[in-house]
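Appendix B. Raw example, untouched.
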Amino acid sequence: MASPSWPTCCSRASWRGGWEIPARRASGETANCLHPGVIATNLMRDVPVVGRLALKMATPLVLKTPAQGAATQCYLATHPGVAGVTGQYFRDCNVAQPWPVGRDDEAAARLWEVSEAIATKLAD
């Protein structure tokens, strides 16, 4: 699920400087969210030539390599220092504060309901 509300909706909890996930903490499970950054990939291959040229010029300045983009995911999956960390939003291997929409409890509840409805339809 691609949303900074995911840890909130996963736990049906609310943002208070970090998502509270008490039921999952007891089991050792964690739920975090991250932003990998803007990655230089071939996803823009169908953009008109002018756009591709502009992107190519901007790539070394603002875009991350795929390895750099994967760094935060790998960090969260393997680093012992974050083994018990849960309910946080990460950017560049650091805890960060998501934009206000990512801290919106009502949006998180809606996301949970829609996700549950989709999952139920897929399970049938």
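End of appendix B.
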